[in-house]
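Q: Protein A?
A:
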Amino acid sequence: MLDYDKEADGYDATRGGAPRAAAAAAAVLALVPDTARSLLDVACGTGIVTSGIAAGRPGLRVTGADAAHGMARRAAERLPGAVVRADGRRLPFPDGSFDAVCAVWLLHLLDDAGPVVAEAARVLRPGAVFVTTVDKAVAHHVGSDIDALTASWSAEHAEDANERVTAYAAGHGLVPSGTALFCGHGQGRTPRRVAQYIRDGRLYAAGGPGLAERVETLPGPDVPRREPDFTLRAFRKE
């Protein structure tokens, strides 16, 4: 996993920057009821999406939380006084504190997403919503030559699989209430980047160096393939 303290200062530039963040923020807000007055962004990172959510709905009190000091520091620059350093599995808020909780690109990083979903449910008021990205890895399968070459290695465990997240949510009284898509601007994969991910063990690790070399020799090794469309699911607390 990345060292998010070290990655904080350059993180946005490698993740699509402002266009990606604006698309994500708009999609989150599309799933948050107009009646919501407070929202917690878990694993808010640099706060670029969090600040977009706040700007997109001025009447919404937005709080960011991130476990990495570097990320929380950057987020606090965008949202002064509204960011806490906290692990999404142990949130420092009382039960029923928020009208909405969101987690963008978090669950896929975890060995067990259950505790994060449980904490989100705990801090939600009845009728409130939990909004999260699902199926991140699947979204990157855009029918490219990279996908064709790695197809036999793509069946990997994903904690953010839609069915898995839905099951976690159901276990804590959260029922599906909506879906939204947004474009992953700047997230089109290149053969060279995917090859490095394979070498680092972040993708298709079982394929090993041989797969990495085959991917890297594809035409246009630094040319991004089609950008993915990411999926957000909303779950309402009953």
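Q: Protein B?
A:
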Amino acid sequence: MTCIPRSRILPAAGLLALGLPATATAQQSGPEVDFYGHINLGIINVDNGADSETALTDNDNSNSRVGLIYKQRLSNGGEFRLHFETALGFTGSSSINWDDNGLELNYRRTELRKFEAIYQSPTWGTLSFGQGSIATDGTAEADFSGTSVIAYSSLQDQAGSQLFQLAGGGASGFDVGDAFNAFDGGRRFRIRYDTPTYMGFSLAVSAGEEVLTSGNDDEFYDIGLKYDQDYGAYQVAARVGLSIRDSDEELLLGSVTVLHKATGLNLAVATGRQQEGDDSYVYIKGGIKRDWFALGETRFSVDYYSGEDFGVTGSDSESVGIAVVQKVDAWNTELYASYRTFDFDGTGANLLDQDVTFVGARWRF
């Protein structure tokens, strides 16, 4: 596939995005500044079938971060925003392994999550420019369970760097990140446009490149469709997206979730496929959330992941997880615990299963 050179896309897009607020008339009111963040630390135990190790770590399902949003409403009914968000740089659960599992503070530029200018029009949609979410970010994550802080479709965020062990002894060349992936989009330096919402539907398109990782200037072209609707007794959300990268990689992915409000029962399904290869997966999650205790909502979920051809053609990836989250409203905190198995077969080697237990807390401010 022929990609439009970024030398043409990004400079022009930047001038357009940064110039948009000037087209509006005088300010309608004074600016607002919102500061937010959370700390999300936990204790992880990994049993690789041969040995067991426990460590204190940041939870990469939702890593510790801070953010700042500057908002200025415009007299034409639109809004201009500047959004900055960064992770704190603690050692994360996706990066620790058997040889390196100490909790350290090591801030790198890749911790930057968002640094963008946003213009929201009162009529034609929203334009964003800078480091931020591409159009497929969150496409595999539609989920009403409330347990995503410790269990969601991107399983590699929990133990991605943990190596599978050979049944005969020693480490294999495969880690959890090789065997499990949700193909969900991330954050890049990009230009993005979101349409207004119509009958629950909205469309986003983006074009951008990787700028934070040294030696990597991959380009990304994404389109994502969202649907959110309240049907009275039920709440429904669905996502579908296509991600095209200049490495000739094309990813098709989507997710859907349903919540029955009266009972708190919920179901989520996510799936994805690499169009240029055979990598594919299905993720299914069922849960319930209820106000059983005065201190806050209790959430429980069970999920199952099945993948094919990750790492090597003919492989099978399977995972089963159980998670519980207890909100403590007075403290703006979620207490959580999970247990998950990772099984990777068909690689030509006999690999031992991995069992991962994770307990922790996320405090929001």
